[in-house]
Amino acid sequence: MLSVTSFTAEDLFCYLSNKKDILVLDVRNENDFGRFSVESPFPFKMVNVPYFDFMEEEDISVAKVSKEKPVKVVCAKEGSAQYVSEILVAHGFEDVAFLKGGIKTWGNMLTPKQINLTTDDYALFQFIRPGKASCNYGLLYKGEMIIFDPSRNLEFYQSFANKQESKIVQTFETHLQADYISGSKQIANMTGAEIMAHNGDFGKASFQYSEVNDDEKYSIGSGGPEIRVIHSPGHTPGSSSYIIDDKYFISGDTIFIQSVGRPDIGGKAEEWSVILYDTLMNKVQNLDKNLDVLPGHFMNWTEANDDLVITKKLDKVINNNAGVYAIDSPEKFTEYIKDNMRRSPDIYDKIRKVNTGRLDVEIDEADIMDLGKNECATIAYTVQ
Amino acid sequence: MNLGDIKFDQELDCRGLNCPLPVLKAKKTMDGMSSGDVLKMISTDPGSKNDISAWGKRTGNEVLGMEDEGSEFVYFIKKA
Predict the structure, then answer these.
(1) The pTM is what?
(2) Contacting residues of B for A79, CB less than 8 Å apart
(3) In a domain, A197, yes or no
(4) Where are the domains of chain B?
(5) Interior CA angle at A108 toward A30 and A157, to 5°?
(6) Do A80 and B20 touch (CB under 8 A)?
(7) Helix (H), strand (E) at residue B32
(8) Cβ neighbours of B46 in A, within 8 Å
(9) Of A70, A105, A140, which residue constitutes the final position of a domain?
(10) Does residue A144 sit in the same domain as residue A253?
């Protein structure tokens, strides 16, 4: 058997964000490929040729793959990618590798970027999850670490905390997530960290947490940067945003760089639209316009700055979404929401149950539930 | 259609195998069957659902039925 090399999801993100001239060959069936595939901060070449095409018509399929570039083969779990890689090597391809662990690892991968200046006495990181187009955050100060909206990638957080010589002491939830499974419970079990969350979303949770309320102030360590709670309901009743050091606005899914959080996922579009409208007009618009908005999700990489951090000043975000902020009545806003409503993925209900601890799932199932790009914004993705 | 009524000519047990093996083995087994013969295949790989369906469409091998029993998937595939 020919031996082929493998690469990791982290490697893949590295190639893509460094604009390496590679060809991504996705060998999953077209349905699965259409639902969710690799996305990059920059344009890149990708082709989808299902592995069974290689089985049925080897030469024709191989001809669809360019020999000019390094070929990075991806599939669901790694087996098919390895199989196709071996076929390509047998056809004389010199630079072929397959994604170890499959596209599942791409879906779970987190990549860290420091947001604030390294000369500050604290560090604020954005952890981007390219496979979900979601962001969560880490705040570190004097050996302690707080995570905002952690995902299930416990290995990443533990390893990151270790490298930073810090102990995870708290997690803050902005809201009850519907599109991914939160890692707060497991982090709390693993580290003894305290979960901070709003009763509006977590009141029925089966696990212990400490409640946060509007305008409360917390700090990390003594003398560390202040964390101010802004109850910002609408996407969910308990949605809360966190302002760090009067500079950074961790907005969860209330507002994004493009669009605002959709208030219809809970099945109460009319009621929650009015609540969201109030939050946007009376709270968000009255915040310091110089705040750096740090959202919970993004639609595409155009929302990133030159350092590949997903962020924008609040005044620019409001400008970008001028159409929304110009809506002059809650009734008109509700109409706007209804016009843009679309089905939420069926899995969202189940994920919410897992996130309140009312449903336990095996790791394998959790992995699958968690995959796929988010559908959290009011505006659906535009066709590129 | 009651899947229990489907007559099949060969049975292939792919339990415990992950892709590409279920489809690969189905193909190899089919290659040795005659046109019109039906293969009953059992798989535990949830990824096999979409793959068998797509492979069937591609090759003209008709998937007569599929039973999802939670942890096991049973396919009846008729050779083109």
Answers:
(1) 0.91
(2) 18-21
(3) yes
(4) 3-78
(5) 175
(6) yes
(7) none
(8) 368
(9) A105
(10) yes
